[in-house]
Amino acid sequence: MGMVIYLRRAGDADIDRLVADPSVFEDFLFEEGVEDLDFLDLGEAWHALHYLLTGSADDVGHTLGIIIAALPELGADENGEGGIGLIAPPLMRAFADALDRQDDATLARRFDPRAMAKADVYMADSFGADALDYVMRGIPALRNFAAQCRRTGDGAIRVIAHND
Fold it and tell me: Residue 136 — pLDDT band, cuts 50, 70, 90?
């Protein structure tokens, strides 16, 4: 069983509905027909992506750190653990802007499996030869997702979950 992170674009009305009735959360997150730009599965690469964006395995309080940042929580996951966080629209817009200033080559140069394993980046100790490609696939997806949120003026819901 591994840990994954999902991001789902959410407007103010969506957030109000989720706060008022948390039982609709799973339906909202995995809603049928949601466009690709409205939902992002970072898979098990989430922590490596965070490391590439921030240069740290920890929550560094930087705008580019939203993947693992301490966020206001909307509730607990199915296991009763905190895992449903709110990325407010201004923070998502700032993230999108900051991400626009990062080029892929610079991010890729930060990929160092030994340093990442030493820093306790999730799954870094099992990275194989194709790990850089796997992790870097998340960058354009993250760029597109963040740009869509910025375009629509929305924030996002971040879900930390265990996959089976």
Answer: very high
